[in-house]
Amino acid sequence: MNTRTERRIAMSRPGFSLIEITAVILLIGILAAGAAIAILPQVARAKVNATKNSMNTIKTAINSYMVEHSQPPQSLQELIPNYLEPGSDMDAWKTGYYYALTPGGQHPYILYSAGPDKDMTTADDNLDLWMLDLQE
Description:
Elements: H1 3-11, H2 18-69, E1 98-101, E2 109-113, E3 127-128
Antiparallel strand pairs: 1-2, 2-3
């Protein structure tokens, strides 16, 4: 071999070119974006399911309270700490549940979660305890 060629081979460092590194970073970005698009709806559904489960837990706690006191509690705060853990009166979006007594109504009380938009005035995503079994 030529001395000049041997010197060039010895001096060249193995590594990646800027184009190769850019292509890999771009590919990783595309894969991450695809994963985020697939995961975000699952997170939203998980929060809805967690809120539904929490509402059923609150319903059980209210029923236990009613057995002992012959009436539902005036507020969810009366259930803490004997029937519910502190913080259980918040839904998955960290919004307090709406709870009210309904004497003479179809049910002794109502329990709502405002849902993802945290607005009780919009009925499109509110979760109603008495309608949970009817919703998907």
